């Protein structure tokens, strides 16, 4: 990247590694230099929380506001009814309006931690595209909007082409998605003066469509900017782990488990993740990322604390670090570990250790738990667990027991008294 930006926002995007592509670097930079630029990212409400895979976009909105501009968090109440086909092998299951509303309520909790919602010029807006999509008249929409879309061009977009090349079905419902997303940009520009759409690089085709439509219908100049699709240095998709997605809501992934995810970052990713997911000075990010040996572990704790403090608060980050130290360094039973509480009725005459590994989330299934035990990966109160037939009764739970899967994943089991 040889372009030297004038605006703080573009400088941050380039320096910290957020920028994959932009429809017009210079034009956007000029607009950002002249005044407050409203910019949006759309989030479909397919679950009750966003996960770490969306955090790069959330941080972009945070930086947009910190550099003097107006972030718009657009909830896809309308588009979630259709489902984004981009780079998917199959159609998304359709959700009911009630499920979508429930998911939006959960997702809203996350945004308030990263951006400031108020009536000031740079105060964030929380919008829902249901506002304009739900009442569309189909024939009017086809005549006024559909005529601007070339099917030949839509078929050439990589997200659609990859599905067709694999001879996988693409429903007409899904094919409409890119038209609806383009229409979002048009409406946001018309209603709120929005000049910028951001998203992951898999959204490039959808973003370009929205820019073209806004120019054709309103003759307004708008811009698109994408971030790289992140994978970890070992090739895994960002935000996915062996035990599922790393959710941002505390009721779906505890702050301690969230902290642990970042603490377990591979050495090669530390510097890059510090730049993307924290607000630490660039020089300090690079210094910490360049550490080697045992020193890189200290950098991982800095990363875990900074990211957890943004998402769950400084107290939760400190508690997670204290629990980790107690568990790893002193072999203790940390207060903040994921906990399974059993009632006397649950316990009955006893419960198998295999069931407890599944209930605690340390194993996905009984088969998975038995394999973990057979491969010497399971521990009970820090001692190797070799008997997959072990039964745990009330006497064994007179004090909490600690289960471990490998060196880094732990849970407590206790009796409700």
UniProtKB/TrEMBL annotation:
Q: Does the keyword RNA-binding apply?
A: yes
Q: Which Pfam families match?
A: tRNA-synt_1b
- Which residues are L-tyrosine-binding? 40, 177, 181
Q: Which Gene3D superfamilies match?
A: HUPs, RNA-binding S4 domain, Tyrosyl-Transfer RNA Synthetase
**Signal peptide coordinates:** none
Q: Where, in this chain's numbering, is ATP bound? A: 240
Q: Which GO terms describe its biological process?
A: tyrosyl-tRNA aminoacylation
Q: What is this protein called?
A: Tyrosine--tRNA ligase
What gene does the UniProt entry assign to this protein? tyrS
